[in-house]
Each structure stands twice: as C-alpha cells, then as structure tokens.
Amino acid sequence: MEYLAVLLPSAAVGAIFYFVMRSIFNADRTERAAMAEAERAQDRKDADAKNPAADELEPEEPGR
Predict the structure, then answer these.
(1) At 63, is the pLDDT very low, low, confident or very high (cuts 50, 70, 90)?
(2) Does this model's pTM top 0.70?
C-alpha cells in the first residue's frame, strides 16, 4: 500500500499532463484546419475577383 501512496501523485500528474497536451494538440489541429479553409475561401474569392464569371462575358457570335 505504501507503493501506491508513493506512485499515485506522479501518476495523477502524468495523467493531467497527458490530457492537457492532448487538448492543446486537438485545438491546434482544429485551428490549422479552420485557417486552411479560410485561406482556400480567400483564394477562391481572389480568383473570382481576377476572372469574371462566365455569364458576365460577352457571348460569342456564331461562325467566329
């Protein structure tokens, strides 16, 4: 029983450390995914601003 009393505080601190680090890595992963999606959306917006939509172009005349 003495061994349990000696090892329990270290095991508890180790478990807390594990859960804290896991939550940090999960938050980082989520933030990176959100930033990547925001960058893709901004890239699409920038590309749409540079290239007019197909319906805004003048229609081609037949035989041209």
Answers:
(1) low
(2) no
The DSSP annotation for 8-64 comes to HHHHHHHHHHHHHHHHHHHHHHHHHHHHHHHHHHHHHHHHHHHS--GGGSPPPPTT-
Q: 45 is written with which tokens?
A: 């917006």
Q: For 25-58, what is each residue's pLDDT tens digit?
A: 999 999 999 999 999 999 999 998 888 655 555 5
Residue 25 structure tokens = 């890595």
Q: Where on the phi/psi map is residue 53: left (φ > 0), alpha (ψ -120 to 50), or beta?
A: beta
Using the CB atoms, write b or e for 24-50: b if 16+ within 10 Å: eeeeeeeeeeeeeeeeeeeeeeeeeee
Amino acid letter for position 8: L
